[in-house]
Amino acid sequence: MLHKKENHFPVENLAGQMRSALSAEKRRVSRDRHSMLWRFRKYYEDAYRDEIIGSSRYRHYVALCRKMSRFLTLCGTEDMLTEDCSDEVLMLLRHFLFDEYRFVGSAPSLYAGLNPREIPLRRRNGNTVASEMKMLGAFFTELEDRDEIQKSPFRKMGTERRKAAMQMQYDKPYSLNEEEFERLLNTDLPEDLLPTRAAFVLQCFLGCRIGDFRRLSMENVAVSSEGIPYVHYLPQKTVKVSNNREEIKTPLVKCAYDIVQQTGFDLPIVRYCSGSSGYNCKIRRLLAEAGINRLVSIYDSTLQRMVYRPLCEVAGSKLCRKTFVDRMVKVQVNLYASGLHKAGSKAVEHYTRMELQDRFKLMCVAFGQQEYGIIDISGW
């Protein structure tokens, strides 16, 4: 059987290709001018200071800047000027971002002292690299708008190359179905997995991102005038860039309410997601113990084809949000089912608003929970 040749970046040619991409004149840097790395740092530091990007996005920029620094160091062009970054240089950087793991052994000094989690061990995911190229695209667009450069190197790439560099691709979504979720709730587990189940199930009932979930405390719990307990919070990913700061309010179905009462949101397992004892690893153990091994398709970037893996081997905290959304979508009536407006019409949103008690009823149906209410809310 013939196998498709892996499109790995040639390690030994990195510096040589960079010399070809930059003329001798461009490799000579004036000492009184700031380098591209300096300008890139200033770009995202200013954006974070001015609340254009949030803390999560800021961390991604910092990580990308470190990768760029290693790339330029390997090429011997640490002081390269921003205006000298061509489309060819960007494509070399893209190849490096994919295959940086191949340089770790040949340049150990660049990785000394790094957190082991930062050292690449395999080819990076295509969406990760595409996201980083989009971040660079935004950087060069701002420089162009400010007349610091004549033209963004991304606009010199050509349509197909630019599309390939920035295209995001997603696998078919997967979530826990109703039978699997019930099995997870009722399976007898080892004592050390009980805290993981409590955290995982509660996150499924809330549907929030892991960053928001680990910040929740009893201060985020309230009770409506109708006696419905709910969790309210500002999503950290969008709080600094959203047009409004309206809190998300998610009703607590009975099972979720019981977990909150028992734990008070003291869930140490969610503090760390990665590692052999982290939340994601424990989630996979949890699903394996419950026998949730349904095959799901995922894209293998090394093999460059779809592969099928048991759900208990690929699951993580993102499965909670996917499960919540999937269950809620399946119990809601389509907004355009009345036939009064065409699909996609924004006008239909003027005629209805889902209140907290409406969401509570839908959530109870979605998760097979009995409706309840708190009569005495004086203690809340």
Structure, described:
The protein is mainly α and 380 residues long. 43% of the residues lie in helices and 6% in strands. The strands form two sheets. The chain has a three-stranded antiparallel beta sheet. It has a two-stranded antiparallel sheet with strand order 4-5. A hairpin with a 5-residue loop joins strand 1 (221-223) and strand 2. Helix 3 runs antiparallel to helix 4, helix 9 (194-206) crosses helix 11 (254-263) and helix 9 packs across helix 14 (318-329). The N and C termini lie far apart (67 Å).
Attribute tags:
single chain; 380 residues; mainly alpha; three-stranded antiparallel β-sheet; 15 helices; globular
Instruction: Let me know the number of strands.
Output: 5
**How much of the polypeptide forms β-strand, as a percent range?**
5-15%
Largest sheet: 3 strands, antiparallel
**Arithmetic mean of pLDDT:** 85
Order of helices and strands: HHHHHHHHHHEEEHHEEHHH
- Helix-and-strand structural type: mainly alpha
- The level of helicity is 40-55%
Low-confidence stretches: 1-6
What spatial order of strands do you see in the largest sheet?
Answer: 1-2-3
General form: globular
Number of helices: 15
Rg calculated over all Cα atoms: 25 Å
How far is the first residue's CA from the last residue's CA? 67 Å
